[in-house]
Amino acid sequence: MKGKRRRRTTVGRGVPALTLGLTLVAGLGVTATGTAAADAPAYAFRNPKLSVDRRVDDLLARLTLDEKISLLHQYQPAIPRLGIQSFKTGTEALHGVAWLGETTVFPQAVGLASTWDPALMKQVGAAVGDEARGFQKERPAGWGLNLWAPVVNPLRDPRWGRNEEGYSEDPHLTSSMATAYGTGLTGGDPDHLKTAPTLKHFLGNNNEVDRTTTSSDLRPRVLKEYEEPAFRPAIEADAATGVMSSYNLVNGRPATVNPALNDVRTWTSHDLLNVTDAYAPNNLIGSGSQKYYDTLSEGNAATLKAGIDSFTTDDTNSVGTTTAIKSAVSKGLLKESDVDTAAGHILNIRVRLGEFDPGGGKYGSIDKSVINSPAHQKLARKAAADAAVLLKNSGATLPLKASASQDVAVVGPLADTLYTDWYSGTLPYAVTPKEGIAAKLGTSVASSEGVDRITLKNAESGTYVTAGTDADGEALQESATSPGTAATQFDVFDWGAGIVTLRSAANGKYVGYNWSGFVNDQVQPGGWFVQQQFALEEQADGTHLLRYAGYETREPWWSNPVYLGPTGPDGTLGLVAKAEAARYTKDVVRSGAEEAVAAVKGKDAAVVVVGSMPAINGRENDDREDMSLAPSQEALVKAVRAANPKTVVVVENSYPTTLGALQKEVPALLWTTHAGQETGNALADVLFGDVNPAGRLTQTWYKSEADLPSILEYDNIKHDRTYQYFKGDPLYEFGYGLSYSSFRYGKLKRFDGGYAVAVTNTGKRAGDEVVQLYTHQRVSRDKQPLKQLEAFQRVSLKPGQTKTVKLKLTTKDLAHWDVTRSKWVVESGTYDVLVGASSEDIRSRTSLKVRGETIPARDLSRVTRAENFDDYEGVRLVDESKVRGTSVGASADGAWLEFADAQLGSGAAKFTARVAGAAGKVEIRLGSPTGTLIGTAKASGTGSVYTYETVNAALSAAAKGRQDVYLVLSEGQRLSTFSLR
């Protein structure tokens, strides 16, 4: 591990600052005066020939305490007396620069990772970094060079609402892609940063439901083997310059004050700038959701000490943050040196970004011409094509023939539109699937969205729901008495889980709620609350209630679902209680399925584009409950397939989908994420064979939600999560993807540093193969993954060509976390080495005998942390104190912990433990939670979960030899440490 560069103790304000300035100036041979201009050589922080640390020390010494504190908010003000401009942390750049106007929009992150191509990822990162720099001459509102990307939370559960933002369920693949993307963003020179990327979201963040109050239980093995390996490599490689703390709690402690934020700094020799997620500091206090501290001063002090440098809260208003920190300093909760430390981290990044260099430093000349440049457009198209995953291709349905004589129809709700997600940039242009295919063929193509057009008539009054006909729409009313006009007609888009959107036929705009009524004025569903969502609830008499399903209705201030009905004499629709809701007769004036069938009949091929709308049924603040394709979309595919046997289905969404029976019924399936501006061209490239598909799935695609535990369950090992532990039969396995070519693998050969395998393209087309290396430990003291990805390489091969692919594997890669000694261990034994085209399609294998070590029997005579158990039931991991440490809390009487294979020797006589919380008892048993009772320690209760008492128990004569020891707890108890001596 690289040694941590320690900053010299920072000098204080006043005379020491001047002394330092004079000293540095003297060293530069420059005369210093008290009235030197801010950009004069007298200011050492502006001298690029000095080390970063010396420049930071100089600048920090020139700042007053108030000025240093002002730097700790997301929006850092200018300091005119030193010629320092304002600075902002946090420009979104997940798959392109977001929220600043038109920029190149690349495929969503999960799509980029599906390329399994770090070199391409680095290119994309470099392009995004260039475009972030492209705004530096104009500095539009919201711009900054501290980028909040990439998201490296492993995708342990496909129902996570932010699945599209991550890379993979595998930490190695995740970290590889993050390191490549981050290297592109930084420019690859840690001392001269193009941009300063921040990894999100640290730590254990894979659920949106109650995301600020749920706690992610990360037992040591899950933390060390799954969570940290996703974050650590990018930091170690200087491909990221900090982390963002997540909203959730980790082992009972809010992630905003997780001491691991400081521990991350030991992973690199360069300074890191750590930030909070938006508004998270306010969650900590009594008026917030977490109520962890009484006051903001206490919360901000703890946040700073835990390793946060920049507070993201209250939008542009920094007063709350700076006032609280000043108060914390005055009360002794913080020292000025604590402020100096955080401000120093921030200034270190700013210096490395070239802010204080002449001309803006190494990357200061980049201008807006790079944004959406032809080179970036070309790269976006390549990335989108390389990310596509061919799921099925029976009877060589694909590729289609690219000829103007080919008569192809393109249908489906996503056939002629592109959608963007919350963190997407603004599309500079949009090539839809229909447009891309038409351009490829050089002719027009038949098309249909395949959605029903309906009218809604009040069953009681006989009047129809009517929309405005002008471009900006009008408030919906029950006014028309006839369904014959477009104003009374709405296209119904089914997105699954009962949620639909309504698009007015009168002006092509979606209906949305504007906090007072419903207006047909929305170009697309979107916004934070996504107020364009509805549900048509059929009643026993065949009528329908129209429920408003915007996200804000899921918040606590709504006690019941809300429905639509006339709320005034003019029939204007508003929100009413269910009992007052209007009952509507739904009449279909145009069948989407019938229109699509008419479009595809007799055609040489039918392409059906189905999938998701990124703002609906899963996004930030909302998890998916249903992973299936929307029922109407599935019905559409079946109808098209019946009408045209050569049906190709493109599934365009951001997450694994169960797909129902479609996987069996259609001859060809292609998956793509929402892939940005070049989606249509990229799809056409793949569908017509200009690009041979080589994307691979980065997640397991399950057959049913029943294959998954609760989304709040974070213990992959115990609950058999991800391909590493899942024992069921998936729909598609991790690493899966087909090609138009076939590939043969030779025998594995070992070389110094890994394994080599010859791979031959046995097909007739040039293509890429993603060669994947997995290992499996046959015998271990601890439960081991069924397979674990250790290396991969995407290799290009011409027809008949053979290449030897070298995949790195060292003994160190075989280590796992030994909870008995809190260290990494490589056990002696036999390991399977498996190479193939996916986690299940293994083409070549060998075994490796390793001389490592044998994990000895547990020595429970030493003080043992309770969190280092082997198995458990009925417990949660909780905060030992508000500062540091993890205890185990019992959720019910009879909760238990197992400490397997303990050596009690000739006899242990005494049990000692530190417990807090409720009164109760700790039973010590052998063999099982109901096995031989060898002692009982009684706790009187401490009245506080943070106040511990020491309890003891005499042990019976049975407490000897090698045993599996179980501790059985009472509800409400917390156990920190124990020993048997």
Automatic annotation (TrEMBL):
Taxonomic superkingdom: Bacteria
Family recorded in the similarity comment: Belongs to the glycosyl hydrolase 3 family.
Organism: Streptomyces azureus
SUPFAM superfamilies listed in its UniProt record: (Trans)glycosidases, Beta-D-glucan exohydrolase, C-terminal domain, Galactose-binding domain-like
InterPro entries associated with the record: BXL, CBM6, Cellulose-bd_IV, Fn3-like, Galactose-bd-like_sf, GH, Glyco_hydro_3_C, Glyco_hydro_3_C_sf
Keyword Nucleotidyltransferase: no
A single GO BP: arabinan catabolic process
Keyword annotations of the record: Hydrolase, Signal
Family annotation (CDD domains): beta-trefoil_FSCN_BglX-like, CBM6_xylanase-like
GO MF term set: alpha-L-arabinofuranosidase activity; beta-glucosidase activity; carbohydrate binding; xylan 1,4-beta-xylosidase activity
Domain CBM6: 861-981
Record bears the keyword Signal: yes
Protein name per UniProt: Exo-alpha-(1->6)-L-arabinopyranosidase
Function: Catalyzes the hydrolysis of a non-reducing terminal alpha-L-arabinopyranosidic linkage in ginsenoside Rb2 (alpha-L-arabinopyranosyl-(1->6)-alpha-D-glucopyranosyl) to release alpha-D-glucopyranosyl (Rd). It is not able to hydrolyze alpha-L-arabinofuranosyl-(1->6)-alpha-D-glucopyranosyl (Rc).
Leader sequence residues: 1-37
Matching Pfam families: CBM_6, Fn3-like, Glyco_hydro_3, Glyco_hydro_3_C
